[in-house]
Request: fold
Amino acid sequence: MLTTIRGARTILAALGRRRQFSTASRRIHAPSTAELCTALDAQASYTAVTGRSVISVSGADASTFLQGMQCNDMVQTSDGGMFTGFLAPQGRMVADAFVYTVADGFLVEVDERVSGRVLKALQFYRLRAKVNIRDTSAEHAVWSVWGPDTPSASATGAAAGAEDRRAPLMGQRLVMPVDHRPSLPA
Reply:
């Protein structure tokens, strides 16, 4: 250990640099929620979220099946949806996802770069579960809606939606038919 420290000092001296340490305390200003609200437009806004795929999981055992496949409690989907993740058998993160409740089951929104892997894993572990799994990316588009007085998912005409709770003021994530846009109040 001592030779490593001497070696590092020798290298720093040879390069003609000195390590500098700041002793002054720096105060970082983090904006409050109220400050962030005033920074946003007075009206709700929306944008398409590109690079996302949507997988439909339906059937009698859909809730139980997804409970065992992802790392969050399916009870949290009772208010429209939730943010969750899919893990490999070794415990490594495969994908982060949103799971939305729809009339006939669930819609799972994942990054399109890993959607094939997630779809393959869902189909592989289906076994005897009474579920139908299919890629519905050609039928659905993902939107993000944010701002003051953001309407609910049903008021925007979305097939599914949920509050994005990853950070304050993220608004809502919506899954809509490909040829539709969110309808927001004027």
